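Recap for those who missed Tuesday's class. We walked through two folding examples back to back. For each one, the amino acid string is listed first and its predicted structure tokens come directly after. Nothing is annotated here on purpose, so try labeling regions yourself before you check the end of the notes.
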Amino acid sequence: MPAEVTESIAQARRQFGLGAPRIRLWLRRVHQVQLAVATIQRTVAELGFPPIRRTRKRRPRRLKLFERELPGDCVQVDVKLVKVGGQRMFQYTALDDCTRLRVLRLYRRLNYWSSLDFLGEIRRAFPFPIRKLQSDRGAELPLAFALSVREAGIKYRYIQPRRPEQNGKVEGSHRIDDEEFWSGVRGGSAPAPGRLGRQRATACSEWNWLSSASLNPAMPVNPSRRSRRSTAPIMAGVIMAS
């Protein structure tokens, strides 16, 4: 074997840390030299290089998810596309991490203006101040929306890309919606907007006052002690919007 080829093999191993198959490819692409893998392995051993240690693949770190201690500490926001009678609609959902209370609203358009309107809806509906919102980076939730949230005195956080589990509670509520509500209205013609809004509001009310108690028995919001003023917005939080 020519000395320059041997030196090239040594360079590939010493400088780049390549194994025999990759050295073979490197020699062919860079130096136009064709050698067998067994020949390269023998040459590497003769040069006195130690075997390459296989590195274990690192498992992605699992995020530690935890419960928020106070209502309003973190409100998860997400948007779900629904089709009823061939008509596309968008269900905006906000879910409080601590109490599991939800506010829903249906929109015919998915854009910044719908998101901005929904921000006002959840601020009126939740019976406690909102300290932080979080969502994915959907096109309907652009930087302008994040700035509007911060101007309202609310912190805003985008979840990490490809990590839907960070918004797992609101995502899970959408799956339950599919099973318990939308599957029952997809088959036929679309209900009238007012009727659909009332049906969705009833489902939202059942979630708020029944499901949340089982998910969080220590829920600080007691529906039996709530005033009519604080109850009504959540009950009416699901309406058809243009």
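Example two. Treat it independently of the first, because the proteins are unrelated.
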Amino acid sequence: MSNQNEIAQLFAGNRAPPLQKGGEELLRLVSGTVSGACLGGYASFRLNLFPEIMRPVDCSGITVVLFGHGTTRNEDSGAAVYQQAAALRREQRFGQVREAFWKQEPRLAELLGELRSDIVCLVPLFLSEGYFSEEVIPKELGFSMTGPESVSRVVVRGGQRLLYCRPVGTHTSMTEVLLARAREVLAQFPFPRAPKPRDVTLFIAAHGTERSEKSRQAAEQHAERIRGRQLYAAVHAVFLEEEPRIASCQALAQTKNVVMVPFFLGDGLHVREDIPVLLGEPERLVQQRLHSGQPTWRNPTEKKGKLVWYTPAAGTDPLLREVIMNRVTEALAW
């Protein structure tokens, strides 16, 4: 396709273009969410055009490794990694999809020794360009992380190319994941009718840490992009360990309606327990619901004079796979 107008016509009505018979092609838009499978007859396309367009990419010989930090202290810490990897395998987007971790089994460094594909894309399921994802892990794996990406994020071992992608959380298309979460929670729990976005204050809730200024940057950048679209009355990034704090969201909101999207990879301790308490739910009730297998927040709940909708973690949304596709396609151009 030579320009965006042609592509817009091709995808009119969210219709996927036909894959060539026996072909293994993928049409990617770097910053968007138009995507398709590389092989296997599967195609899933979402129309969301962005300026930069890439050529079709053959993914059939590629191994993609999704990896997270991991921890042995929380058995659910790797759930989102396993979830997204399993979905990519079902969709047959790549020749092979594996999952790994830095601090729990299967270990990333050990897994790499088992892979035989000519091209291996390492995709950090991290939400910021922090100390571990951009310094500790790549250094241990032999990436220089200095100079242009074609040098700093590429290692050649024998006939194998290892590509170290940027974290999923900093890609511009992650903004679409956050917006999708916000739209869906209002549509699912209208009570009695969904408020219009202009009557809603949207909060992006992230971890944050005073030990690294980069920890908050991605959440703030996504909030700024959404703010620029003028969809909501206001958009704020709030944090667990930095100012402005999550607990201050009701005071910050100038509207009756509040939507909070956790900018976390999975529905772990912070998402299911800490944030509901910070929003005003009694800890006793949160623990009671958690142990009985119920959602720890009921949408919407009125707290401190605000009607609050709270979504699942951004990292468990199916659209995260489109962000992964964007990062892989980006790396294949190095």
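Answers for example two:
The longest helix spans residues 174-188.
Residues 174-316 form a domain with the Rossmann fold fold (CATH 3.40.50.1400).
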